Amino acid sequence: MGCKTGMLTKETHSALYMTTFVLKEITKYCEEEFNMKYILPGKFQTDNLEARFGLYRQMAGAQYHVSLRQVFESENKLRMHSILKICLQSTKFGNLELFQEAVTDNWEELDNFISEKLPTFPVLLSEDDFKKTEDFLPVLVYLGGYCVHTVLKKLKCNICRTLLTCEKELDCSTSLIQNLSRGKLLYPQKCIVNVVLYSYVIMQKICTTFEEEFLKFPNQKHLATEIIFNILISEEQLHDYGECISGHKPEKVYRVVIWSAVNSLLNNYCKKLNDELHNSSKAGKKRKLEKFSKVISNNY
Fold first, then answer.
1. Of residues 192 and 85, which shows the higher confidence score?
2. Taking a C-beta distance cutoff of 8 angstroms, is the pair 172, 138 a contact?
3. CA triplet 289, 280, 295: central angle to 5 degrees?
4. Distance (Å, whole) CA 110 – CA 99
5. What phi and psi, each to the nearest 5 degrees, are found at residue 118?
6. How many of the other CB atoms lie within 10 Å of CB of 153?
7. Quick check: is 41 in a domain?
């Protein structure tokens, strides 16, 4: 609507006219050709298409104008993600999908963390727990490559790079990396994939069996990192490849890998928890406001 004239602009009027005309013709066509008694005009919209292009723009660096190449690359990532889904099951929130691109790591938290007496959970792992992960092993390998990337970003060590990565392999476990890579994605060593695999299985156990106790701890990432690290040590799953010439010990590297994996796995979980706390806070404020308004009205 024009600000000065108080009338619809030419473009708005044309769009409104065209939309109304098309809905009328669709209704007529559905009635005559399909003998439909009614239709839902609200279903004829482009929300899904706009949402898809919104993802393209976000995955292209949050820019409005995306190139055809960026569209193809984003579509490839989205399709692979829809095929190879990995969920963290929560007793409280249900299935929570992992969308690794949205994750950021705060290394200062890990560096400044002072060890304290942490609660321990009797997490028991079985062979069946690991069999359930076979279908989305490529996603865990991809996540392992991301964890290695974050480790190398922190340590800036070429020696560690040769110890933690391997050459490209043409097997099913690296298929996701091959489809998404433009030559920059890393192929993690089996020891790293094993750490990520254990991290996922243990987090799955914690979020289903010990979720209430887990949520009581003020910093879940630190707690989960320590639990996973201790279980890996007790089951002798950490490969000791020796300290590199730069002085980076395997223990430190594995902790950073676990931290990065836990950060990715808890991403949507923490968002759900924050949303719940935010909604409960809003509800509490609303009740207080209603009670206050009632008191004011009674006094006056």
1. 192
2. yes
3. 15
4. 22
5. -105, 150
6. 12
7. no
Question: Does residue 96 sit in helix, strand or coil?
Answer: strand
What total number of domains does the chain contain?
1
Number of Cβ within 10 Å of residue 256's Cβ equals 23
Residue 98 phi/psi, 5-degree rounding, is -95, 120
User: Of 109 and 124, which is predicted with more confidence?
Assistant: 124
In a domain, 297, yes or no: no
Query: Is 70 exceeded by the pLDDT of residue 53?
Result: yes
Half-sphere exposure of residue 257, counting CA atoms within 13 Å on the CB side? 32
Report the C-alpha gap between 280 and 277 in whole angstroms. 5
Q: What is the distance in angstroms between the CA of the first residue and the CA of the last residue of the chain?
A: 43
* Integer Cα distance of 82 and 76 in angstroms: 10
The first and second tokens of residue 291, run together, are 């009670």
Coil/strand/helix, residue 7: coil
CB-based contact 92:214 (threshold 8 Å): no
**Which residues are bridge partners to 95 per DSSP?**
89
Segment 25-42, tens digit of pLDDT? 999 999 999 999 888 888
pLDDT in tens, 250-300: 888 888 889 888 888 877 666 666 566 556 555 555 565 565 555 555 554
Q: Which residue do the tokens 């089951």 mark?
A: 235
**What is the spatial distance between Cα 263 and Cα 113, in angstroms, rounded to a whole number?**
15
Nearest to 203 by CA among 100, 125, 255: 125
Tokens for 36?
A: 């439909």
For residue 120, being part of any structural domain is answered with yes
Contact between 98 and 87 under an 8 Å Cβ cutoff? The reply is: yes
What's the DSSP call for residue 165?
Answer: B
Whole-model pTM above 0.70?
no
- Whole-number Cα distances in Å, 44 to 29, 39, 225: 14, 10, 48
Alpha carbons within 13 A on the beta-carbon side of 134:
5
Domain containing residue 136: 75-286
Q: Assess if residue 84 is contained within a domain.
A: yes
